Amino acid sequence: MKDHKSDLCINHILPIRDALDLISGKWKIPIISALCIHKRRFKELHRDVPGITAKMLSKELKDLEVNGLVKRTVYDTTPVSVEYAVTEYGLSLNPVIYALRDWGLKHRERMLHPEEKPVVA
């Protein structure tokens, strides 16, 4: 017989795991954040996300596109130009990204100044 608390725990944890599976890694959130500012071509995005390799950026963009967070638009120019933009669905991550940023700022401050009282949110 299943425990009611166990079901509640699973119903709480599974959606978190789903979200983390989608945005996990160190590159997806910085890519989405950069695209939230404005759409970019591949080289612009590569320049604006410091430390990422072109191969990794390409892989992450494909994954984000498959999951509906990023839209890839190919223009019929010579040479062909490709532009990436965050989708409306991708924009729905903004509250999560802002919450992570805010928590990260508090955590960084706490690590840099451990002698001060802990920050309570």
Report on this structure.
The structure is a single chain. This protein has 121 residues and is mainly alpha-helical. The chain has a single domain, classed as Orthogonal Bundle (Arc Repressor Mutant, subunit A). 60% of the residues lie in helices and 12% in strands. It has a 3-stranded antiparallel β-sheet. A hairpin with a 5-residue loop joins strand 2 (70-75) and strand 3. The mean pLDDT is 90.
Tell me briefly what this model is.
The chain is mainly alpha-helical and 121 residues long. It contains six helices and three strands, in the order ααβααββαα.
Summarize the SSE layout with pairings:
Layout: H1 4-23, H2 28-37, E1 40-41, H3 42-48, H4 54-66, E2 70-75, E3 81-86, H5 88-91, H6 94-112
Antiparallel strand pairs: 1-3, 2-3
Class from secondary-structure proportions: mainly alpha
CATH superfamily grouping: Winged helix-like DNA-binding domain superfamily/Winged helix DNA-binding domain
Straight-line N-to-C gap: 39 Å
| Succession of helices and strands | HHEHHEEHH
CATH topology: Arc Repressor Mutant, subunit A
Beta content: 5-15%
Tally of discrete structural domains: 1
- Helix segment tally: 6
Major β-sheet strand ordering: 1-3-2
Output mean pLDDT: 90
CATH architecture: Orthogonal Bundle
Summarize the main sheet.
3 strands, antiparallel
CATH class: Mainly Alpha
Oligomer: single chain
Helix content percent band: 55-70%
Low-confidence residue ranges: none
Pfam family, one: HxlR
Keywords: DNA-binding, Transcription, Transcription regulation
Protein name: Helix-turn-helix transcriptional regulator
Domain HTH hxlR-type: 14-112
